[in-house]
Design a protein that fits this description.
Oligomer: single chain
Strand order of the largest sheet: 6-5-4-9-12-14-15
Order of helices and strands: HEHHEEHEHEHEEEHEEEHEEEHE
Largest sheet: 7 strands, parallel
Distance between the termini: 32 Å
Length: 270
Amino acid sequence: MSKRDRWSALLELLAAEGRLDVEEAAGALDVSSATIRRDLDELAEQQMLVRTRGGAVAHGVSYELPLRYKTSRRAPEKQRIAAAAADLIGDGEVVGLNGGTTTTEVARVLALRVGGSRRDGVDAGAPAASAPALTVVTNALNIAAELAVRPQVKIVSTGGVARPQSYELVGPLTGGVLKEVVLDAAVLGVDGIDPQLGAMAHHEDEAGVSRLFTERANRVIVVTDSSKLGKRAFARICDLDRVDTLVTDVNISPETSARLTEAGVKVIAV
């Protein structure tokens, strides 16, 4: 197992348990205790955990795994969710995307779709149409960077202060841009969905930006795998009455699906 794989596994264990024991982690990863200690020391130097005697703990009760270590988690589910969510976006629409692994997958599906439609329907030597095939407004640096090379997609990137954990721009500068745009749809990744409290995020600044997306959008689509359903996070984004559609995987329980449907949310399980 490579160091990167070990770190990813350790951080996933920490995200799930809130703490790590050196001996238990060594057994789970089938490596030596000395290797785990070195890994934990290096992760602590990067301020990704707090070392303790015999192990490590998360920085806070609502631990957030950095985006670069989340990309492989539940990847098949996220790709199916992204494909289904992209089907809800019409040609020429203005769509808002917050940061996260699932919304990044949505952006990739949309980029491939509009790219394919242009190749199939327009001669290579013909001038580009004046109207973009899609307009994407995002506060996620990685999404903006990926889509910036797609001439069929108009990219609007907010300003703000970058959070290294999620590559999202947050703060007053972000809100200044979002308050000046109108969205056909907002596609939001979340850290928790609770039938009473609604959609939530780990970080209050990210929740505030996502809330602005919902306020500027004609319809709101939440994309998340079923592990986030019934979970609570630190900061609330919006009530369920602001969410039009939830796209998730088939592991959603019938009870949760029924409760969300009763709250007025259309549930799509793929």
